[in-house]
Amino acid sequence: MNGIGMLGLDEMAVVFEQSICFRGLKPQARHAMAAKAISIPFAKGDTIFHANDPQRHFYLVAKGLVRVSICSLEGHRLTYLLAVAGEPLNLVSTFSKKPRMIEARAMRDSMVVLLKQTDFIAFAFQHPSVISAIITVLGNAVDSANSRILDMVGKNVDQRMRRILHALYLKFGPTLRFTSIEIAEMIGTTVESSLRALSKLRKKGLITTQRSRIDILKPEAFADSDSGMLWL
Amino acid sequence: MNGIGMLGLDEMAVVFEQSICFRGLKPQARHAMAAKAISIPFAKGDTIFHANDPQRHFYLVAKGLVRVSICSLEGHRLTYLLAVAGEPLNLVSTFSKKPRMIEARAMRDSMVVLLKQTDFIAFAFQHPSVISAIITVLGNAVDSANSRILDMVGKNVDQRMRRILHALYLKFGPTLRFTSIEIAEMIGTTVESSLRALSKLRKKGLITTQRSRIDILKPEAFADSDSGMLWL
DNA sequence: CGGAGAATTGATCACAATCAATCGAGGTGG
DNA sequence: CCACCTCGATTGATTGTGATCAATTCTCCG
Known about the structure:
The structure is a homodimer.
Chain A: H1 9-18, H2 27-36, E1 38-42, E2 47-49, E3 57-63, E4 66-71, E5 77-83, H3 91-95, E6 102-106, E7 110-116, H4 117-126, H5 128-154, H6 157-172, E8 175-176, H7 180-187, H8 191-203, E9 207-210, E10 213-216
Antiparallel strand pairs in A: 1-7, 2-6, 3-7, 4-5, 4-6, 8-10, 9-10
Helix pairs in contact in A: 1-2, 4-5, 7-8
Chain A binds a DNA duplex through α8.
């Protein structure tokens, strides 16, 4: 059960402890769930699941960073979630059977914990706090998505860039290790446009950029009194 | 308890019976909930709740049509849900305390049923099928919102118009009683642009238009093999 | 080194927002 | 009953933003 690159029971317990979905549960309940979980390591760049894969498991990030994105038939990709340790990858598809156009990919070497769908659902219904957490996460997803739609309508690329950088700053701190392509897929624009936006910010002295890296120099300048918080 | 324009217990029972959230429950459970509910009539044009109102109730449409929309500080409004009998108005804010920028307005004379937040939450946790329904509704909302974001990125106004009309056709049938302003707020564009799009469809013979009314002549022409279903 | 992927900047073009003006329909009050 | 007023519909003209195409440089890594 404890093969190479897998998590020991203790490490697994820590993952569940820090997870949005399971925190606040009694230790023995968490352990019961941890005992049924399996952990799988993914190297940077690996695909964890593909678009339209039928989902039989509930995925939880234990370590690393996983990008969850949706893809249109035209080939546009939109990054929807950057999941760090404790965050679930596929809450929605865990509960409704129908497949979704979502895809998960490890952006760094990562460890992912899998629970059988049936186990997780049964567990959730026995623990109201898990249900609460699920509804909260889904609620945030709805809010965030609607907020992004409003952004697409009312804000230009520059403004959306500021908002995304601010959100990333809050989640990851001042040093952001993302490529312009990745940033563009979060904003919903092209690489060129996002580079032009970054270029303006650089000239204003608000950021510095290197290959695959953006440093926020003046976080204050990105705080928007504006509309709802952006989640990633 | 049964003032003018209010619902009798029997009518109330019917509402709960046809509601996405409560269907499938035992009659006595539904009646217990119906007994705690109050019903309020709203005239066409009335506001049911405003943006940033603190939400203390769970709202369910009993009769009529209610538009739920979010509004940005710049004044852009995006219609998010057209709720008919049985549909909830504020699932998300019922479960998370923080206020949202959503607003509900009666588009026709409507009857709305209110449940105290605490009553509804307690009830939901006693009935797994209600929880399932809630998660399904939220899941659809997430899917739909993400699908709309992809539309904003990859589709032009004409294509988005086709998609919205198709979604409206599925929900309301071939005769759509909406103004161009309302349609524009669903698509996320301006009145003028939506009128131009409608004009093209009219010239193609796919629709006819009158004041505050659109008739779909060839529904087949709107079916998109494309991306995920749009919910309204 | 050499190659692949990332960054950068320029030039062009199309779509849709904006501004503007007119028309039409329905509702209200004198 | 007619005059009027408001809101919706419609079309034209103009403009700006961002997508697209293209070319070059840079950087990391094998």
